[in-house]
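Box 3.1 A note on notation
Throughout this textbook, protein chains are presented in two layers. The first layer is the amino acid sequence; the second is a token string describing backbone geometry. Keep the layers aligned when reading.
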Amino acid sequence: MKKIYFLLPFVLLACKSNPTAVSEQVSKSISKPLEITYKVNEAEVSDFLKYLSSDELEGRETGTRGIEKAAVFLEDFFKKNNVKPYFSSYRDTLTNFKSPAYNIVGVLEGTDPVLKKEFVVLSAHYDHIGLEKKQQEDVINNGANDDASGVTAVAQMAKYFSETKSNKRSILFVFFAGEEKGLLGSKSLVQKLQKQNFNLYAQLNIEMIGVPMKRDYLAYITGFDKSNMAEKINEYTGKKTIGFLPKEAHYELFYRSDNYSFYEAFKKPCQSISTFDFENFDFYHHVSDEFKVMDIPHITSFIQEFLPAVTKIATTPTEEITMNK
């Protein structure tokens, strides 16, 4: 996640949000979920996250040899799971970074002849902040939670859709570089997509899901009040999957990850999903953000719980997720 400044003043968005009303709104949307027989493999989740956050990748700073290894790893994952490149290759070169850097972008075409012209974007950033400059015993910022956990979730969703072929809409799977440098990867990509008249329906960006919250909902969404996405996700899962986190509004997290670049360009529902709530993880942008502190069963169950939601988003005959006016 792009650097958060914890001394921000309380913002108007937080003042306008009414947690009681939000809770009632969320509860009303709980219904019978879409049944998914596919099971996310916990061992695969663990192996994927363990490598992406390993010391070998040296903290995955954009423009370094570490993130180059990560890029190759993600390309190989797409190839293995029959996810095609969206451009001429999986590598989408950033236009706004001084040295060669790449988003990794794959696509699964929708199965419906009409709906396939619309796109859902599932994304996460695979870069992190690299090596500590000061001398100390551990200098590698492994970024297991931030955001190798989110990349792992998106990768498993790509595998799911590749195997089930259950997406009527086309799905763009994006692993962004340059997020920690100022959302550079997403800013670069949206400019190219706009020139193609890219027909975006919605974007789900996944940020920091490595540990669970001690709350009565699984995750929160940034910019809760901006669309009905939280309500619809809960309807699709039949659970209180998404809740309202006041601190999300307080720190304006909607503007601090790659969803914002897409929202700014397309003015469609583009929001980030997270389980980092400022109370459950002490190692934000810290060398101790390592694989060993990740909760693999939680990450696996997170992905599993979201499968009905992403499936419905990719299949509904009309665009049910809309911006609030």
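Residues 144-164 form the longest helix (21 residues). The two ends are 28 Å apart (CA to CA).
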